TrEMBL record:
Protein name as annotated: Phage head morphogenesis protein
Top-rank taxon: Bacteria
InterPro entries named in the record: Phage_head_morphogenesis_dom
High-level lineage: Bacteria, Pseudomonadati, Pseudomonadota, Betaproteobacteria, Neisseriales
Location of the Phage head morphogenesis domain: 108-216
Pfam families according to UniProt: Phage_Mu_F
Organism in which the protein naturally occurs: Eikenella corrodens
Amino acid sequence: MRADVQGLLERHYPKGIAQDSLTDGLQAALSALLRYWLARLDKLAPQIAEVFANQSANHTERAFQTALREAGFTVRFRATAQQQTALQAILGGNVSLIRSIGQQYLNRVEESVWRSVNAGYNMAQLTRELRKDYGISERRAAFIARDQTNKAKAAIEKSRRQELGITEAIWMHSHAGKEPRPSHVAANGKRFNVSKGMYLDGKWVQPGEEINCRCTSRSVIKGFNT
């Protein structure tokens, strides 16, 4: 996407004083590129989201199996209706987010291009602006990926615990964020009901479910770690 934007601008961006014929050509080319990439995102987003959801599920289940093995249990997970429901919820949310990252980047590119044309910026100045736009999108994508990984882990763990009859878990604060939620810090080490979550800040939540929450949890297995 970034390479396509750069290539288009090198071909169509006005080299001197912006003339109507030049800006008309730029407008047409930019509109065509936006349509092309929005259509591609519509096709690619579900595929990317499915890969992400499956990788998250596999990673979470391996970690969960390791924790159970350390407690003396050997469990082989199978695809269940409950797990599929959890994965579909993750999938739907991620498709929308993937589309939004691309769409917002393209919108920023379009705004930067016309701002540069109107201000009389040359190609070098516009390129610097576009680097900033790309950096914003890249940081947002990294944040969303981390945040959605935590949400996926929370949903899959909850599903598997319920299938195994594990009703309680212990909240574990990550101590990783610069500005932790006081309620999440206070919840560290406390038990919560797996089905409901922990009641924090006026609502029921699971560890890792809130935006930028990196908290995790440990299963309570009766007779072993109670």
